[in-house]
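Researcher: Good morning. I'm working through a list of sequences from a screen, and I'd like to move beyond sequence-only analysis. For each chain I'm collecting a predicted structure so we can compare shapes side by side. This is the next one on the list. No need for commentary yet; just the structure.
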Amino acid sequence: MRQLQFLKEYVDEFTYNNNPTEEKQIRLETSLKFTVRFAEKNDLVIGDATIIIDDAGHEGIFRIKFHHLSQFHLESPVTDEAGKKSVHMEASQILYPLWSSILRSFCASVNIPVIQLPPYRVSEDKIQST
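Model: Good morning. Structure tokens for this chain:
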């Protein structure tokens, strides 16, 4: 594994919609899209995550969406695809607990049951690095 140094992070978008109805049972569905981008010299890595949790099949009833950006310094630049995939996996392992914490804190602040993110697992052939 390569050495990533976490530099900073921020949430630039956060939306929440909760319009419960008595006759509908909420069934949550989670979508997590995470990509990494490498700066020109390949020693700076930008993580870009969009997490959406909504009621499957009932549009407009319940939805949480947040966009999270992060920045890392890479100890040694990478140029090959295998190295970029490895950086992607390492960044996601560092960020997953942070994403979960943001979601747990939000749920507590609006007084809804805590929503757990499903484990972030992706096969290496599904990783895209730009």
